[in-house]
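WARN retry 2 of 3 for item q-0093 after timeout on previous attempt; input resubmitted unchanged.
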Amino acid sequence: MALSDPIADMLTRIRNALENKAKTVECLNSGVCRGIAQVLVDEGYVTSFTTVEDGRHGKIKIALKYGPRGEILINKIHRESKPGRRVYRGVAALPRPIQGLGIAVMSTSKGVMSDRKARDQRVGGELLCVVQ
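OK item q-0093 returned
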């Protein structure tokens, strides 16, 4: 089956796995999905991720992270830029989810990064998703 939006598929799989209290989740492998997974690891929302070869494109296996009492660390994760409506932001207009407690994941000319890193490097780009 052809998949038109692998980023939305990845975010939905993560949301569903968190609701089911799963330890890991497998997503389709692509450069942008690996970049989003790396940002989630760097910001402390997930433990780690690895790529698994399956003979086709491969998969990304993400180890989810929960709080000390089992609470979910990602309360809300949603897609901003979609295939039918791309959302671009300059460095001055980057969002600050929950006054800086959440992150926005950006696709910039320097790679996929969080909004904090994009502000530090003074680059804007496509607003992929927001994690709260």
